[in-house]
Design goal:
5-stranded parallel β-sheet
């Protein structure tokens, strides 16, 4: 019986306001509890437009996935022609409702676009400020500290890993890989357990190798492994543009007897004897730019 940990990335104001309630309704219908990672600061989605000029393959990806129709025109202008809405302040009730419904709630970021585009060049105090601002709004909204973070665009650095250790998080989820592990970045060992995303995402699959909306879920089902699978979905996509497709996937997985858990439960159940593994930024199929990738296991040090 496969186990599926559902990780929901919430990147934008509209995704939080409209996509999250739609996902909460879907999860309630199937009795599923998931882990939601919220962006809590300004929605600067419009600024992501600069990736067109700096990132190989980004424009082709935007066109292929029909980004304007997925995100809506306003979202594509936030932080440029339109002021950037502060997501945590505007959507506090949605975030509280998510936790009240029994889901786990973690921190995605303060400013998604800034983290995704600039993390490697940010000085350590700036990285600390991004996490600190998100942490303080999180605590204002939910009355307790977050146990987990998940980096925007699976983008991390030695500084972000060091800050996770300093925050004494129970686990984090900002990489792609096969099974829970402790990250080793350029030879430096870190103490915060990583729960990597093991499956590709909808936006990576659609349009690749002839995969269409009709065949997407067959493809997802063919990728499910025995043991732990971690699926990242986006409130902007599975909670809005592709809701019916996602509900069909949940129906088919439920019929096959899949068990759904939160990432916190995955950490408790599968993290016990996690190895140390190398972690580095690299390319994956279907995604423009680089993401953090789990590498081979390294010998344990006493
Ligand atoms: Zn994100």
């Amino acid at each position: 019986m496969p186990t599926i940990a559902l990780k929901v990335d919430v990147d934008t104001y509209i995704g939080t306001r409209d996509g999250v309630p739609a996902l909460l309704a879907a999860f309630q219908r199937f009795g599923i509890r998931a882990t939601f990672y919220f962006s809590l600061g300004p929605d600067n989605s419009g600024k992501a437009i600069r990736r067109i000029f700096t990132r190989k393959g980004f424009l082709a990806k935007m066109i292929r996935t029909r980004a304007p129709s997925v995100y809506g025109l306003r979202t594509l202008l936030y932080g440029t022609l339109l002021p950037a809405p502060l997501i945590g302040a505007r959507c506090a009730e949605v975030i509280r409702r998510t936790e009240r419904a029994g889901h786990e709630v973690g921190i995605h970021c303060w400013d998604h676009v800034k983290w995704h585009d600039f993390l490697p060049r940010m000085p350590k105090p700036a990285v600390a400020l991004e996490l600190g601002q998100a942490g303080s709004v999180y605590e204002q909204i939910l009355g307790h500290r977050s146990r987990t973070v998940a980096a925007p665009g699976w983008t991390l650095s030695a500084d972000s890993l060091e800050l996770q250790d300093a925050l004494k998080l129970e686990y984090s989820s900002d990489s792609r890989g096969t099974a829970p592990f402790y990250p080793v970045w350029e030879g430096r060992r870190f103490r915060t357990l990583q729960i990597p995303t093991t499956l590709p995402t909808t936006d990576e699959l659609l349009g690749e190798k002839g995969i269409t909306a009709t065949t997407l879920n067959d493809h997802f089902l063919s990728l499910i492994q025995p043991g732990l699978n971690v699926l990242t979905i986006h409130a902007e996509l599975e909670g809005k543009a592709t809701v019916p497709l996602f509900i069909d996937l949940l129906e088919r997985l439920t019929k096959q007897g899949a068990r759904f858990i939160t990432l916190g439960e995955a950490a408790a159940e599968f993290g016990g004897s996690a190895p140390h593994c190398a972690i580095s930024m690299g390319e994956i199929e279907g995604r423009a730019g680089v993401v953090a990738l789990q590498g081979g296991a390294l010998p344990s040090v006493p």
